Amino acid sequence: MSSGQESVFPEYETDTSQTSKLLRKFKETPFVPIGMAGFAMVVGYGLYRLKHRGDVKMSLHLIHMRVAAQGFVVGAITCGVLYSMFREHVMKPKE
């Protein structure tokens, strides 16, 4: 960009590190990173349990882990939507 031109998105150009972007996203929508962390935890637990699955077939174990991870993410997104609706409509300042 030339020096005479203003930036369209100045907040995106000043915060270039991944950590600052993640912190900003966490402040804007806190349930998205919580859903991502929950997904990672379910996947980690699934990989740990993969070694001790006993006589359960591999495909059945993977299906159960996929459903658990997706359920956690959908639950986190639902909580985020409800939280944002509550914040916008119930806690909305009187105009």
UniProtKB/TrEMBL annotation:
The keyword Membrane applies. It comes from the Eukaryota. GO terms for biological process: mitochondrial respirasome assembly; negative regulation of apoptotic process. GO terms for cellular component: mitochondrial membrane. The chain crosses the membrane at residues 31-48, 68-86. InterPro entries: Hypoxia_induced_domain (IPR007667), RCF1 (IPR050355). Residues 3-95 form the HIG1 domain. It is found in: Mitochondrion membrane. Keywords: Membrane, Transmembrane, Transmembrane helix. Coiled coil: none annotated. This is HIG1 domain-containing protein. It comes from Aptenodytes forsteri.
